[in-house]
Specification:
It contains eleven helices and six strands. The protein has 311 residues and is α/β, with parallel strands linked by helices. Strands 1-3-4-5-2-6 form a six-stranded mixed beta sheet. Bound molecules: adenosine-5'-triphosphate and magnesium ion.
C-alpha cells in the first residue's frame, strides 16, 4: 500500500533510528544497506524481459493484496531468486517490484555486508528482517546473494563451514516468518554455482526467474529507453535519428548495462565538445558506432585486468 505522506516521515524516522542502533552494534552500514521508502523505478523502464515482468507484477499484486492468493488456498510467495548475467536488469526489476507494490525497499548488498561482517552477517540479516516485517509492506533485496558463500573472504574449507552457518541462520529466519508478514525477499545473482541449495528450498527463495541477455528486439527497446531517460533528465532532445540496421549488428550479445554505457559514452563525447566551446549537435548513428568501439576496447582491457594476461 502506498504510504500516506504523514505516515511516511514517521516511518522514515523510525527506520533511521533502528538502523542507527543496528549500526552502533555492528558498525557503519553505509554502502551496505540502503533503505528507500518510495522506490521510483517502474516496470515500464525495464526493456524486454516481458515474462519476468509479468511474474513479478503478479508478486507485487500478492504483496498488496494477499487475499488474491488466499482465495486459491495458498500463501503469497515469500522469496524469489533472479539469476542471469551481469547488467541484465535484475536490480532494476527488484526496485520496480517494490515500486509497484508501494513497498519499502531494503537494498542489502551482500558482497559488501559479508566482506565486513563475515559469518556474523546472518545475525545482522535476521535483525533487518525483523525490522522489515514490522514497518509495513517490504521488499528485501539480497543483491549478489552469492556473497553468502564467503568465497571472497576465506579459503574454500573455512568458507564452506562459515557460509553453511550463515545460510542456516538466514533459513531459520525465513522459515519462522509470520504468514501475515507483508515481506517479499528477492535475491539476485550472476553466479548460481555459488548459491547454497538450501536457500532455494520450498518456502524460501522458491521462485526462480532467469534474467537472460536481451535479444535484438529487447535491445532496441532498451536503447530507446536509455535515450528517453537521458532526454528526460536533460529536458531536451539529445539524439538524432538512429539507424538501427547499422548499430544492432555490432551490439549482439551485449547486456542492457552495456547499451546504457554506450549511450553514456556518446553523450560524454558531446560534453567534452561543449566544454571545449565547440558545437555539439545531437548524437548520431556514427557517434554511437564510435562509442560501441570504445566500449568494446575498454571491455577488452577489463578482461585482461581480470585474467592478468593477454588472451
Ligand atoms: N532490461 C533493461 N532495461 C533497461 N535498462 C537496463 C536493462 N538492463 C540493464 N539496464 C541498464 O543497465 C543498468 C544496470 O542494470 P542492473 O543494475 O539492473 O543490472 P543487474 O542485472 O542488477 O546487474 P548485476 O548482476 O551486475 O548486479 C541499469 O541501470 C540500466 O541503465
Ligand atoms: Mg544488480
Amino acid at each position: 500500500m502506498v504510504q500516506p505522506f504523514e505516515q511516511e516521515w514517521a516511518i522514515q524516522r523510525r527506520l533511521d533510528d533502528v538502523f542507527a542502533k543496528v549500526g552502533e552494534k555492528y558498525g557503519d552500514l553505509r554502502g551496505r544497506v540502503e533503505v528507500k521508502l518510495r522506490p521510483d523505478v517502474s516496470f515500464d523502464e525495464v526493456g524486454g524481459l516481458s515474462a519476468a515482468k509479468a511474474t513479478l507484477r503478479g508478486f507485487a499484486d500478492g504483496l498488496m493484496n494477499p487475499d488474491l492468493y488466499h482465495r486459491w488456498g495458498i500463501t503469497p510467495p515469500r522469496g524469489v531468486l533472479l539469476y542471469g548475467p551481469p547488467g541484465t536488469g535484475k536490480s532494476m526489476l527488484a526496485r520496480a517490484l517494490a515500486t509497484a507494490a508501494g513497498a519499502i525497499f531494503y537494498h542489502l548488498k551482500l558482497m559488501n555486508l559479508t566482506s565486513k561482517f563475515g559469518a556474523n552477517t546472518g545475525e545482522l540479516l535476521q535483525e533487518i528482517l525483523n525490522i522489515a516485517t514490522t514497518e509495513g509492506t517490504a521488499v528485501l533485496f539480497m543483491d549478489s546473494a552469492d556473497g553468502l558463500s564467503l568465497e571472497h573472504l576465506l579459503p574454500p574449507p573455512q568458507a564452506r563451514e562459515a557460509s553453511a552457518r550463515l545460510v542456516a541462520a538466514l533459513c531459520e529466519k525465513f522459515d519462522a516468518l509470520d504468514e501475515s508478514a507483508r515481506v517479499l525477499v528477492i535475491a539476485s545473482t550472476s553466479r548460481t554455482d555459488a548459491i547454497d541449495p538450501s536457500l532455494v528450498a520450498p518456502g524460501r527463495l522458491d521462485h526462480l526467474i532467469e534474467i537472460a541477455l536481451p535479444d535484438t528486439p529487447a535491445q532496441q527497446e532498451i536503447l530507446a529507453l536509455v535515450q528517453r531517460r537521458a532526454e528526460r533528465e536533460a529536458g531536451r532532445p539529445l539524439f538524432g535519428p538512429i539507424d538501427e540496421r547499422k548499430l544492432l549488428p555490432l551490439v549482439g550479445g551485449m547486456s542492457g548495462a552495456d547499451l546504457a554505457e554506450i549511450a553514456r559514452r556518446a553523450l560524454e563525447a558531446k560534453v567534452h565538445l561543449a566544454a571545449a566551446g565547440k558545437e555539439a549537435p545531437p548524437v548520431t548513428t556514427d557517434d554511437l558506432l564510435l562509442a560501441v568501439e570504445d566500449h568494446k576496447r575498454v571491455r577488452g582491457v577489463v578482461e585482461k585486468i581480470r585474467y592478468g594476461q593477454y588472451l
